Request: fold
Amino acid sequence: MSRFFSQKYSNLEAYTPGEQPKDMQYVKLNTNESPFPPSEKAMAYAAQAAERLQLYCDPECTKLVGEFSKLYGIGTDQVIFTNGSDDVLNFCFMAFCDEQHPAAFPDITYGFYPVFAELNHIPYSEIPLREDFTINTADYCGIGRTIFIANPNAPTGIALTLDEIERILRSNPDNVVVIDEAYVDFGAQSAVGLIEKYENLIVTQTFSKSRSLAGGRLGMAIGNSSLIRDLNTIKYSTNPYNINSMTQAAGIGTLLDDAYCRRNCETIAENRAYLTDRLEKLGFVHTPSVSNFVFAKHTDLDGEKLYLELKKRGVLIRHFTKARIRDYNRITVGTREQLDILLDKIKKIMEENA
Ligand code: PMP
Reply:
């Protein structure tokens, strides 16, 4: 920290993104990216947009909003696009939390929530998941806090039902409930259909996972028009041009090729079943994930050791040091070929440790 760094951030512990090492070619199963390339249309549209990079991008993302609202059956004033969904999650903390509206989220969830709360000096509480890592809906009923729930949750992959989400929404009518659907396309039910019914609901989604655009940085929030206006007030007070023209174009191309995304999601669901089956046979236990990752541990193999041994052998998975989950690893569901390499290396590590 330099002597110029503001005191107000002196205790801020920044989020640690999943590692992106460049020292060798890894089988990368650590940051929940798609193993599939962007849609052909996305790449062609982005290349075309590059020809006009001397101009500012459209701050309203008019064409992208138009295509998205058509596909999702919502109004054009019910969505805001941002630079990845991290951007709009931060906006939600800025717009809907303060001393009177402290934040609440599970103790085991997306690691950026507490960072956004700290960054914006928002008081927050972390509500423990049950022993089996499920969310107890009752813990969130009538708590008078701005609630952030990843559905499916990360890193567990476990989803709430829409009934459970509605219970939380109904019992907190004076607080915004943010449902982070970064992984919803891989098997959970989306709450987007509830935005007309609940004026306190914000749903965030991303193009980073199911739509193969993690490097393009495109995310969005969906909600009633007055909540979206609030988020736009924050966006236009920070960086109106937060989505560059190539990414806007790639986003449009992606939406026009929705069948490609659906097919990839089906393949990921099949590969997830393959991976969990093989891991079970090797003695692992795992949470019931409906996401593009599997959260698994082995009773005889230390979680950190497995992560380090796999890294040595060129396979990256994600290990967390938090006490409750340090025995586990989060493994992104890749292609069958990637998973076979992973499983083969795990078998070898187990043999060496026998
Ligand atoms: N929410 C959750 C639960 C995530 O795991 C991630 C990915 N790290 C994000 C949001 C943000 O993703 P992005 O900013 O790439 O949209």
